[in-house]
Amino acid sequence: MTRVDFYLLNTHEPQARRVFACKLAEKAWRLGLKVYVQTGSASESRIMDDLLWTFRQGSFVPHALAEGTAEELADTPVAIGHGAPPEGFSDLLVNLGAQSLPQLNRFSRLAEVVDQDETLRQQGRLRFRLYRDQGLELETHHIDAV
Fold it and tell me: Rounded to whole angstroms, how far apart are CA atoms 132 and 126?
């Protein structure tokens, strides 16, 4: 069963949300997990692609845009995209998009990163209810600083 963690950031700054997602991806990669970072658009995917190289001094998270084939992404620990997750990525989904994914049950863990933007909060509440109604294990974390 998928475990869902909601990370509620106490900021309105979109960049803080992205940086937190990078930190989650880095931690998961260091634990040997395959990570898919779900964004809302191609432009957001490119922003995350750039940010994973620069989010902190000395950062290095091996990653790729999820535009390649499953074979091309086989050795990539972190994939970023705005469409269906590539095959082989089922350990952690970091959702920065507005929607939940229909194939959610293929992931061991899901991280929902929500900041103080009212639209994002409303979308997050809807996803929380959806996951709860599906009987998923939910955990909420209040994050003071990123």
Answer: 10
In tens, the pLDDT along 81-113 reads 998 889 889 999 999 998 877 778 889 999 999
Cβ-in-10-Å burial (0-12, 13-18, 19+) of 99 comes to exposed
Tally Cβ neighbours within 10 Å of residue 4: 25
Neighbouring C-beta atoms of residue 62, cutoff 10 Å: 10
Read off the pLDDT of residues 18-75 as tens digits, 9 standing for 90 and up: 999 999 999 999 999 999 999 999 999 999 999 999 998 888 899 999 987 778 898 9
CA–CA separation, 2 and 10 (whole Å): 25
Q: Are strands 92-95 and 35-38 parallel, antiparallel or unpaired?
A: parallel
Are 91 and 28 in contact by the 8 Å Cβ rule? The answer is yes
Calpha distance 90→35 (Å, rounded): 7
What is the chain's length?
146
Residue 22: exposure state from Cβ atoms within 10 A (0-12, 13-18, ≥19): buried
